[in-house]
Amino acid sequence: MRHLTPADYRVQPWKNGLGSTVELFRAELDGVLLARLSRATVTEDGPFSLFPGLKRNLTVLTGPGFRLVGSGFDLDCAPLTPVAFPGSVAIAATATGGTASEDFNVMTADHLPAPQVQIAREGSVLPAGGLLALYAALGPATVNGSPLEEDHLLLTTGPARVHGRHPVIAARLFGL
After folding, report:
1. pTM surpassing 0.85?
2. 135 CB-side CA count, 13 A
3. CA angle in degrees (0–180, nearest 5) for 101-105-106
4. CA–CA separation, 59 and 141 (whole Å)
């Protein structure tokens, strides 16, 4: 089990230069990105960065959300509803209404199985399998009896039991 805190995170500019992201976790092999977990804020309508070779999954944490539109895509990014899309497709945020929405992002290499992203609530039991990342995005929680403070990330390969009044974002990554 590995516990990461904001002191472990890195702020990076978006690939398209229109904002920044807080990178919570990154896994690479021989300099090639396998997986990345991050948190960002969408403040206005505009293009998302392209990430050919990666799958993307986004979950709005705070704010009203927005739509992601592109060739063959029109996704409603509502709060606490994970949405998946390919990183190789040009896609843009629309309908932001000028109101900021914070989101949690999961990116994984195309050759890996798709990540499973869900919202874990009070009493959720998540089985072992793959690398399970539990992010206390909206407030503190308890995982397997240990406290997980707000904005902390727990990585485990074992099962996890979640308690607390705040939901936890659970991302299961495979092939790392």
Report:
1. yes
2. 27
3. 165
4. 18
Domain ranges of the chain: 8-109, 116-173
Find all residues with CB under 8 Å of 135, minimum gap 6, and list them.
Answer: 24, 37, 104, 152, 153, 154, 168, 169, 170, 171
Return d(Cα 46, Cα 18) in angstroms, integer: 9
8-109 maps to which CATH number?
2.60.120.10
Per-residue model confidence as pLDDT tens digits over 122-152:
999 999 999 999 999 999 999 999 999 999 9
Give the pLDDT band of residue 78 (cuts 50, 70, 90): very high
Q: Which of 133, 128, 130 is nearest to 118 (CA)?
A: 133
